[in-house]
Every structure is written in C-alpha cells, then in structure tokens.
Task: inverse folding
C-alpha cells in the first residue's frame, strides 16, 4: 500500500487525469488531493472536489481552509460537500491563536484531519499584502492545538522546516500529531541528525533500550507536482536504507498509518 497524504492539484487543464495516470504507474492506492491559492498555481476547492468525483476510489479531497476568513460554518460546509480533510497555511497570526479555535473545534467534531504547512513558503509578490510570516507556521504551535483538541488529527507538512526539533517534540508528546517529509526535505537534512531525532532503532545516550523512534507518526507525502512524486518516493526509500528502518515501520510510513487515519481499506 502506498498513500500520498499530500498531493497538490494545480490549476491546469487535464492535471487530475495526469495525476491519476502517475498514481497508476507508481502503484499509489490513494492520494489526498488539495488545492489552494492562485499565487501558487493551485486549483480552487471546487476543482479539487470535481476531480475527486472523477476518481472516487483513488482521490481523497481535502479543502483549503483560510484561517483568517473561514470559520466553523465553513468547515461544516466543506464536510457537507464531501471533503474528508482540511489543509491550511500562511495565517496572519500563529496557528495557535485562539481566534482559530472554533475552526479546529469544528474539525475535531467532524473528525476531519487538518494538514498544517510548517516552516517556510516560497516567496511571491503578494506576501507583504497577505501578511505572510513564516514564523506563524512554526510546529511548536501544533503542540498547543494538540493540547486543546486532543481528538483532532494533526498533520504537519515538511517536518517543520528549520524548526525540526519542535516538530519532533510535538510528535513525541502527542500521539495524534503526524508529519510528512514532503518536497525536498530529505535533500536538506543529513541522515545522522534524522537518525538521532527519529530513533533509527539505536540505543539512547544513557544506554537505555533501543528506541523505535517516531516512525509510526511519519507519513508519506510528496507535496510536489505529479511528475516529481517518484523522486520524493525514492528519497524516502533512500532514507529507509540509510537508517536501516525495518519493514513494518516502512509499511507504516508508506501507507498503513495514513490508511488508519483516513479509515480506508487495508488499514489493518
């Protein structure tokens, strides 16, 4: 089983069909698809929903939620429209600002997982007008959200960017906090620090029993165009080999954990 928890949809004619063909060629069983903002070339939520209806056995639609504009009523509307998760980025305030709490409460009540982009975003000419501050997307804010909404499934995108220690601490303290290693994350972090952070079945500093790390909270997400998904999957496989990750943990990362979160078949 191979599930891509972070497959963006771009505002291009035929992109959904091309993504479906790529998924078939790579053996992907499910993809969580989402759109976003035009400044990043992303499709609108309505396009994402339309594409998911064309491939209902393959695509799982996530709605892009603007935390500064959308409230709990919008979250409920997304659920009624058939979206099975939410994604968000670039808030004007930190993710754990209490003004966003009603939206998180609605997502928790509706059992909708929420993807939070963590770390840096690509620069655009609209950033000043939009009030983009990458510090508002630090993974430490997911810790607050997890404490206030313990039944909410939280997925951080990109392992927190430069704040990786915060991402790992958030996972270590909360079983319902997960992260993907999407985009070029695995090209920027060395294997030894990653092994130290995630355990890699090694003994701790004080010679305790070997830690299995946090592999059951790491999930596969590409976060790239369909032509680049294979490259990200190879990065994951290279990481597994470098860190001697065992087969069960690999299965969890590549699909089993995501299947449980999404309640899709094959989640045993």
Result:
């Amino acid at each position: 089983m191979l599930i891509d928890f972070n497959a963006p949809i771009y505002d291009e004619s035929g992109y959904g069909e091309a993504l479906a063909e790529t998924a078939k060629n790579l053996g992907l069983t499910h993809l969580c698809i989402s759109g976003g903002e035009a400044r990043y070339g992303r499709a609108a939520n309505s396009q994402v929903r339309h594409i998911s209806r064309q491939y209902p056995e393959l695509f799982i639609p996530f709605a892009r939620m603007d935390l500064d504009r959308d409230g709990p009523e919008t979250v409920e509307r997304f659920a009624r429209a058939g979206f099975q998760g939410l994604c968000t980025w670039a808030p004007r305030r930190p993710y754990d600002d209490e003004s966003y709490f009603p939206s998180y409460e609605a997502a928790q009540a509706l059992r909708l997982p929420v993807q939070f982009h963590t770390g840096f975003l690509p620069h655009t000419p609209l950033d000043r007008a939009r009030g983009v501050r990458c510090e508002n997307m630090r993974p430490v804010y997911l810790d607050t959200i997890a404490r206030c909404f313990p039944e909410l499934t939280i997925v951080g995108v990109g392992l927190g960017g430069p704040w990786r220690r915060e991402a790992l601490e958030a996972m270590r303290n909360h079983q319902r906090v997960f992260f993907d290693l999407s985009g070029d994350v695995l090209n920027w972090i060395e294997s030894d620090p990653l092994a130290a952070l995630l355990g890699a079945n090694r003994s701790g500093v004080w010679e305790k029993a070997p830690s299995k790390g946090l592999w059951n909270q790491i999930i596969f997400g590409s976060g790239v165009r369909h032509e680049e998904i294979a490259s990200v999957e190879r990065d994951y496989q290279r990481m597994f080999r470098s860190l001697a990750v065992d087969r069960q943990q690999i299965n969890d990362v590549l699909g089993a954990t995501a299947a449980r979160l999404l309640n899709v078949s094959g989640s045993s």
